[in-house]
Amino acid sequence: MKLTALAAHTPEAVRAALAARGWDAQPAWFAACGVQSLVVLLEDIAESEREALVRWSAKAGADVLTGDGWALVSAAASRLAPLARPDRLPPGLEAVAPELGRFLASYADPPRRWEIAAGALALDHPVLIGVVNVTPDSFSDGGRFATLDRAVAQAERLVADGCELLDVGGESTRPGAAAVSEADEIARVAPVIEQLARRGLGPVSVDTRKAAVARAALAAGAAVVNDVSGLSFDAALARVAGDAGAGMIVMHMRGTPDTMDSLAVYRHVAAEVAAELGTAVARAEAGGVARERIVVDPGFGFAKTPEQNFRLLDELATIAGLGYPVAVGPSRKRFLGAATGRPVDDRDRATAVACALAWERGARLFRVHDPGLAREALRLADATTSAR
Ligand code: PMM
Predict the structure, then answer these.
(1) Based on the domain organization, do 192 and 316 belong to the same domain?
(2) Cβ of 207 below 6 Å from ligand 1
(3) C-alpha span between 196 and 202 (Å, rounded)
(4) Does 173 sit in the ligand 1 pocket, CB within 6 Å?
């Protein structure tokens, strides 16, 4: 007898073990996904549902831990699957099926493409989003053409370094940053986006919370709207993105940049961020943004302490469990400084590591200021986790 412990954090090791023993690729993958252990937390459930779950778990061989109004169920995916099938559902658990079915479907078949206005981005490899800031504090000499030239030069560097999307922003979202009027924000970003589009640099996303800015940016050639407020700042933004068929990055934050630090209070940060992102995504879909055009982002550093950012990074699979592609923007942020002691201008190594950890936990898009190191780290992470 020979015993080998298989790596069980993804289905990959089981798939490879079956394939090495003669299984065809597809059955090996489905079987590997089926035996993969999953843990789901069901909250806001009635006492009768909790009792039904406990009875079902005993019969199905699932582990269940429960408390007031919640149950945590742990089992192989194949054992959980009947709970998502209305025809095989134990009585009293009807409310569980739709959500669990949605989760299992996206777990087995995660999104592979992101539809944006200019076409689509493949998500079978790490996608780098390069930051092009056109705020006066980022380009201190201020003159309009100098700013334009520098933004174009920056975009050229980012594309040469492997960025597949350029995120142009004209409003700083740091706490205490001065408010920017719609007209000023448009005057900053629209000419830059127009130039990038004219030169074939892009696709371009516009980092804005405002519908009017998004409208002008899309007219200038942007293909994506990146809203750090998760559609809570300007209710009209979703409709603008929806009507244009734009891609939409829905990021999590609480409050505004000036109030967010006081709102960093969570009992279970990953679960709460996922739930609040779910609400934000519903706003996007209600505004006409199609599901396949939406990407979610946990919003590192926005209404989160360093410790909450670390938990969120480690538990990113919870965000991926929403079923939308996940983008992350850890680049140079304070929590990286808290872990490494490095100042903001020396955090690109930590950024690269954060990106690799995020990829391994399900993120597919990475917003970075300088892609060089992140690209290397992500290539290694991709080569390690993707069997091709
Ligand atoms: N972070 C900032 C700005 N925009 N957009 C997304 N989608 N995700 C982020 O994490 C994010 C963002 C703030 O960072 P910066 O001011 O350093 O660019």
Answers:
(1) yes
(2) yes
(3) 7
(4) yes
- When computed from its CA atoms, the radius of gyration of the chain, rounded to whole angstroms, is 22
Q: Is the Cβ atom of 249 under 6 angstroms away from ligand 1?
A: yes
Give the domain-ending residue among 108, 123, 152: 108
Q: What does the pLDDT average to over 11-34? A: 94
Give pTM, 2 decimals: 0.95
Residues annotated as part of the active site: 333, 367
CATH label of the domain that carries residue 66: 3.30.1370
Q: Tell whether 3 is covered by a domain.
A: no
CA-nearest residue, atom 9 of ligand 1: 329
Alpha-carbon dihedral sign for residues 329, 13, 7, 54:
positive
Q: Is residue 9 part of a domain?
A: no
What's the structural domain count of the chain?
Answer: 2
Residue whose CA lies nearest to ligand 1 atom number 10: 329
How far does residue 231's CA lie from ligand 1's centre (Å)?
A: 15
Q: Is 282 helix (H, G, I), strand (E, B) or coil?
A: helix
Q: How far is CA 369 from CA 95, 130, 137, 180, in A?
A: 44, 6, 15, 22
Question: What does the pLDDT look like over 115-136, one tens digit per residue?
Answer: 999 799 999 999 999 999 998 7
Q: Are residues 210 and 87 in the same domain?
A: no
Residue of the nearest CA to atom 8 in ligand 1?
A: 329
**Do 103 and 118 belong to one domain?**
no
Q: What is the pLDDT of residues 202-248, one digit of tens each?
A: 899 999 999 999 999 999 999 999 999 999 999 999 999 999 999 99
Give the position of tokens 């079915």.
Answer: 101
Same domain, 101 and 142: no
SS3 at position 336 = helix
**Closest ligand 1 atom to 207 CA:** 4
Give the whole-angstrom CA distance, residue 319 versus residue 296: 8
Same domain, 223 and 347: yes
Q: Taking the chain, what is the end-to-end CA distance rounded to the nearest angstrom?
A: 31
Question: Is 251 touching ligand 1 by the criterion CB < 6 Å?
Answer: yes
Domain assignment present for residue 11? The answer is: no
Residue 335 pLDDT level (bands cut at 50, 70, 90): very high
Q: What domain range is 353 assigned to?
A: 113-385
